[in-house]
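Protein modeling request. Please complete all fields; requests missing the sequence field cannot be processed.
Requester role: graduate student
Desired output: 3D structure, token encoding
Chains: 1
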Amino acid sequence: MKSKIAIAALLLLPLSGQYAMAEEAVAGESTFTTSAELGMLYKTGNSKSGDIKAGLNIKHEKDQWLNLLAFNAIAKKTEVENADGEDVYESTDNKWDILGQTNYSLHENGKNYLYGNAFYQQDKFSSFSYQTSFSAGWGRHWWETETSSFFADIGPGVKYDVTRAVAATDTDAAIIESSETAVIVQAQALYTKQINDFVEFKQYFVAKQALESDKNSVYKSETSLTTKLIDSLQFKFTFRVDYDTEVEEGFEKTNTETSVTLVYSF
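Delivered output (266 residues):
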């Protein structure tokens, strides 16, 4: 029930995009910016695998409102040998997440804003069946120049995690699934740097710090470098780190993801 409420809160947010610095919109004018990215990798030889990474980012601006929505998905199948000695493809990575955020500037063209943020993630191979969070608070555009910008926000929120179901014992078929609700303080920051007319650097960081020491806290970092090929097509390199402080036995606390994709803006 809690997960349905969290998802509903996410979907009720106005259209939003990957957490990114917005350009100033013309007063009273409503603008949409959309980009889609896709990357694929197929390996043969000593090992065979196929990878697909996809993403969609939408940004909407009107007056003092900025709405952002980001969707990301990754799937990977690797050739393995089954019990019969046959080579088959099995999923070795399969996850997706969606992020929505709405910002309201306290003054027209002002630096301070109020925000609401919701996040949902499913990861087939992590310690969690799914993780979701909601946060609201205050943010500020600390600086913006022709070539760089930095802004950050912070606020209280709540996080709901559902751990992956496991067998109760080696012989018992019963399945146990546990959940955890935690009050958090969420902090986000994004730095962008236009290196030249063709290359842009971005560094994004988010921390979801649980107020109780025995609860799971989440930290995420995403570093990207985008190169413009033509006006509407870019080449993007991304390195992402996800860290959970509390995971089930047999799972890693730190997960990394390196991807190369083509991004089409329209």
